[in-house]
Amino acid sequence: VAKYVFFATLDGIYAAPQEEYxxxxxxxxxxxxxADKEQVADMAxxxxxxxxxxxxxxxxxxxxxxxxTQGNKLYTVDYVNGEIEKVADITISxxxxxxRTLRTLAIDNDGTFYSxxxxxxxxxxxxxxxxxxxxxxxxxxLKPATxxxxxxxxxxxxxxxxxxxxxxxxxxxxxxxxx
Length: 179
Known about the structure:
The chain is mainly β. The protein is 4% helix and 36% strand. It starts with a strand and ends in a 7-residue tail after the last helix.
């Protein structure tokens, strides 16, 4: 975003000019904003509306990868004044309640959002939506945009799981070309 790198820690969002990573400034704090045990899963910038979006999950313990079966929320962050605004609660459709958590976020140049759920092999799906899908602050029962991601072992570790998700999202959003 405007030649800055943004990143999240457990206490807030920080920014640094590209190539000046030692010049870090805190943009905003999560104190009083997120629910108990809610933490940032991923962030992405939307060129259509110029906003930074944050996807969060609820975990069993902050700082862990132990994901709860609920808790997908989408926020915007004003990267100038640090104001955080909740955009939507998101529930996804999956036959297994253990795989209903979105772990990644990418937004293409047309403003379409992409996310991949926690899971492995036949339980990993790509989900996509636009801001038009939000009704009264909710996206409910979001269906997968693709069949299983089973054939997307893009990091060659012998399995398809959420470790492959970022490369999948980079591909669908046009950031990389795998062809």
